[in-house]
Each structure stands twice: as structure tokens, then as C-alpha cells.
Amino acid sequence: MNALPLNLTEVPAEGAWWGTEAHRRFLLADAARQFAFFRRSIDSAGGFHAQDYDGNPIVGAPRELHATTRMVHSFALGHLAGVDGAGEMVDHGMKALWNLHRDSDHGGYVWSVTADGQIADGSKLAYGHAFVLLAASSAKQAGHPDADRLLADIREVIETRLWAHHHGRMSEEYARDWSKISTYRGMNANMHMSEALLAAHEATGDTEFLNRALGIYDFFIGEVGAANGWRLPEHYTEDWQIDADYEGNPMFRPKGTTPGHSFELARLLLQAWDLGGRKAEWLPDWAGKLYTRALADGWDRQRGGIIYTTDVEGSVLRRNRYWWPVTEAIGAAAAMLKSGDELGGAIREQEYRMFWQAGSRLFMDHDKGGWIPEIDDQDRPDAQQFSGKPDIYHAIQACLLPLLPGLSRSCSELPQLKDV
After folding, report:
1. What total number of domains does the chain contain?
2. Cα–Cα distance between 156 and 363 in angstroms, integer?
3. Which of 255, 313, 363, 382 has the fewest CB atoms within 10 Å of its CB?
4. Is-catalytic flag, 394?
5. Which residue, of 182, 217, 252, is where some domain finishes?
6. pTM for this one?
């Protein structure tokens, strides 16, 4: 493959684009910029630096579990795509997970560690453990020699500590010694667990992983979403009743519903449908309803981008615009386009292009690589919620998943970037 120029930044306003060579080269060029930017985060002392907009280490920033695991997952995809040095990044991250985040005293994986390897926050969160399973599964697909060890360990932790067997979904959070610290239950951790379960099914062939993901969808989409106009409340009580008044961390637990998560789940539903042999015909129907509602509620018609949260009636709660909902809208629209005429078609292609135009104009850093995580009302980079560029995970999937020929991840079919 010829080397690709890294200045491919324009999404054409009209004419054919989806599935064209220009489309492919645009996605590969941004993927190459992202991998080059985040490769600089490696810390020889262990783990990965958080990076500012220029790629410099943010001094004193803790290494959080979801960031470490997402680096492993993303560079495992990069390794499968032939990215130079990606295998080194995966190996470095796998060592950090086992030697820094893994709690050899109490089991499980602590939320954050300091730059010198000390525990900063020993909490055991379902959200973080979901990403450990995702990292282990992607590392296994990439052929890492320690993937089976990590996969076996995280599977046991989930089975014995986090999976609520009588409900068929995840409990939420514990102290380092696994004592209960709250009765909170949330959709976000379960959504990401379903993503990891699908990846684990692909990596191992074990149908138990797929069945558990389907059970999560039955509750949050088939029961809760269907009863609430296809909006998905984020927060629940211990007995899984909607807690509409709950508001926690403004990034991970904002009040209300999150259109970006509905886009994300629409893509995952289609992936699960495909992995299950396309027999569960209700999954594409649910995906289409989630996507349509998220687009109607979330798309900012005046400014572009996707608003962060609404209430259960669709009224705006937080008008903040972050990069990740746009990337998930891209992934959902791409999955729709791959699903055939009933879900795809000309309208979906227009929406897919619209999302990429917003991503390119508002969030992509065409010069330095990576995506700006948040913008203000004047479309300028903002830093209310994030410091620097937090991770590669959402945006690299927006580039790579549309290039896969099918709906499931089928990582062996990733395009090759080794000459980019």
C-alpha cells in the first residue's frame, strides 16, 4: 500500500463518499494521526502518561483503569492493522494492568495509580472492570501471550464479585476490600460490560458471553427503553428502579439520559444481532428506534455536534458538546449502512456524512493528532471537564469500525495502516 498523506481532512459536501477510496483514505489518515499522537504517552516507568493538547505529559495526573485498558484495546486494534510499534504499546499496557492496577491483596483492579505505581484510588468499579475484559479480549485477538491469563482473572472477578446473577447484570461499586460503598446501579457500566462481553465472545467463541450481553439489552432496551419513548435513563436504585433525580460525577454519572449512549448501544445491538446469526430480529428494530430518538434529541441543529444529556421527556439538561457522542453517532450510522436497505440507505449516508463533517470541523486535531474532547459555545477548545486529550478509544473506533466489511469487529479483517 502506498503511504497516505496525513492532510486528508475534508469531508465532501456532496457526491459519493461512503465506501469510496476517498472515504477509506480519510479514515486511515486520521487513524494514523491518532496512533502517532498517543504512542507518545508511553512511560518507561510503567503505564501511560495523560497528555495535553500537544502530546506532552500532564504532570501528576493519575493513571486511571479505564484509560490504561482503552490504550490496550485500541493499540491491539492497531497491532492487527499493522501499525508500527502498536505491539509494544499493548505489551506495556498489559504489564501495567497486571503489575499496577491488579490488586494482589484483595483481587480485582484498582481505579487509579500514581506515576510511581502507588494506589491513588483503590475503588473497585464495574465500569473499569468492563474495560479490563475488553482489553483482555482484544489482546487475545491480537495474539498477546498474557491475554489468556488476564482474561481468566477478570472473568473470575466479574463472576464472583460484580455479576448479579439474579438480575443478569452488573452491580456497581465497592471499596478496595470489596465492602459495599453504595447502592447505586447504572446503565453506563452495564453498557460497556455488554461491549466487552461481545468482544470476549468474538475472542473465545464462548456463547455465555453473548447470552449475557443479550440479557443486558433485554432489560435496558426491551424493558426500560421501550417504556420511556426509547430514551434510556442512566441511573437506578439497588432494586433497579429508575432514579430520575440522581446526579453524580458530571462526566460518568450526569443526570438524565445521554443520547451518545443510545448511539453506542444502537451499534452494539447490531453487532450482537450479527454475532447471533441475525436470528433475533427485534435487535435491529431496537437499534433503529434508539438511533432515531438519539438523533432527534441530541443533534444540535444550530451549532453542530451532539448535546450531552436530556431528561426523560427529551428536554435539554446539559448542552455541553464532547467528542465522544459524535464518534458513537458515526459508529452507529456506519453499522446502519452495513445492515441493509431497511436500516441504511441514502438518509443514513447523509447522516453519516453529517456526523463526520461535525467531527472534522469541531473536534479533530488535523495538525497534532487526536481529538479535542470538548468545545465551548463558540466552538473553541474548552477544559471544564477534561484536561488534555483523554484517550484514543472512541475516536479510533470511529475511524476503524466503518472500514470493517461486516458488523462484528472481525479484527482480522482490519485494513492495514503499516505504510501510513
Report:
1. 2
2. 39
3. 313
4. yes
5. 182
6. 0.96
